[in-house]
Amino acid sequence: MTPDDLLGMFSISEADLAEVAAAGVVLDGQIDQIVERWYEWLRSQPGAMKLFSSDEQLGRVRSQQTQHWRTFLRGRVDAVYLSQRQHIGQVHASIDLPNDIYFAGVSQFLAFITERLRELRSDDLAAAVRQTAAIGKLMLLDTYVVIDTIATIARDKIALHAKAVMEMSTPVTPIWDSILLLPLVGIIDSTRTADVMTKSLTKIAETRARVFVLDISGVASVDTGVANQLIKITKATQFMGCEAIISGVSPSIARTMVELGVSVGDIQTTATLRDAFEMALKRVGKAI
Question: What is the mean pLDDT of residues 280-284?
Fold first, then answer.
């Protein structure tokens, strides 16, 4: 989203930015005191100071924060400004900053700025009201950019974790010459079944397997969608000249599939993995 898009979304006009800049002139020389007061408030918050590993880091963060507010009060929202706020979001995400501290801190800083601005503009309270309103609107935009960055990083981490879990939960393994086994565990959805099909067919092509055993004893539940997806996987293996066997069909799953009217066609099914293994060995001309 561009700076202009954000300004429009938060209904911040050029007049609002001019009011922020005007407030910056009035508050020039006051930012250090306001930041100091804010840190006094932060010290009173339980556990807040644990976010800083050392006094040196605290001093560095405080200096950066002071510079941020000087930049903020220039009333200029451009690509550089947004990049700086996104960087702050990245930093907050890296230290896992609690949302309550962040939102409370933003609110407290606005209160301190409002109070100081009204003291300094006691001769023109109408101007002070306009300026604090404009600052409040810009702080909402500022906060949104930071939180949106944190949320994006969190979503990316979840997606990466889900991908890693999916890869670990789809182990297509050769258990005998020309026999592959895929034990499925947990919840099966369309995304996972697509991954299962891709990896199964790839492994069949690599190993030139003749029998593919799909064990579903660890699957939590089976509905029409899941059952049809499993059938599609086994049908696809047959197109590659590999016979499919579905093992681990529990009584509850068998009953569910019958009630749902799911047809397995000519696909072999067994109640246990052992039965499936014995059947697979016979298909390749082996015996235990």
Answer: 90
